[in-house]
Amino acid sequence: MPVLEEELYLEESVRRVLAQDYPGEWELILAIGPSKDRTQEIAERLAAADERITLVANPSGYTPNALNAALAVARHEYVVRVDAHGFLPPRYVERVVALLDETGAANVGGLMRVEGDSPFGDAVAAAMTSPLGIGGASFHTGGEAGPALTVYLGSFRRSVLEAVGGFDEHYRRAQDWELNYRIRKSGGVVWFDPDLAVTYRPRRDFKALARQFFGSGQWRRQIVEEYPDTASVRYLAPPTATALVLGGTVLGLIGVVGAARGNKPVALGRLGFLAPGGYAAAVLAGSAVVGQQQGLSARARVLLPPVVATMHLAWGWGFLRGIDKSLRR
Question: Is the pLDDT of residue 192 over 90?
């Protein structure tokens, strides 16, 4: 379990792991990053209370480094990834181990069941489980059990992780997707099972949500640059929409200035507002449908359109900008 500034959910997440009814020996390894909240204190208290918990340091604070640090001290054949803001359902560990044996897959995982604990969280949950907000990936929106490009979290045979070199620490985001790409290229199968639904708590405000999706867009751009065959309409749609919205807005503002100065050719630039206007109309209409389908509260329905737009445009801007040159390879 990678852990960084998770005082809000860490104890509950660990409790769900400790409650697993797995018929064999197991351990929980918490890889702790340099947190500014009470995360370290909570982790130490939990470890002192249960000998199955091991703490390892993750000085960088980055997720792939945490996962590799935990893997380095893990003692068992099966490796199950969990999150500090995710809650495992009962018998999850038993089920993923059985699936690894039944399917022969290199990695098995399931659905990210996003559940908010506030109107904002409910709006984010609706967006993250709908094609409108997040696209059609099965681990977000569901689907049939079977081979997939990637899954939420993931459970592995230790030998598979060692064979492909573990998590690539270059990827501060999207390391799961990148690992699964290498697994599939090596001939392994990534297996999705919708019954493996793990509760996930989303970000709690617009700033945190924008930061999350901006970073995801940046690192998805890096994956596309390193693995061009992974480019798809799903990943290129947000940066395209972002570019059209930004370009249309700039053109429209130029048109307003031209109209004020009586320059009719320049004034035609006001037509650029059709791009952001059309995007806003599409988001509003789509959000109305999703809000009704998911039975959101009135407050959550009001928040859903700006939540969807934040996810789209932050992800798209992150993709267009890319990671800093110093981080590229």
Answer: yes
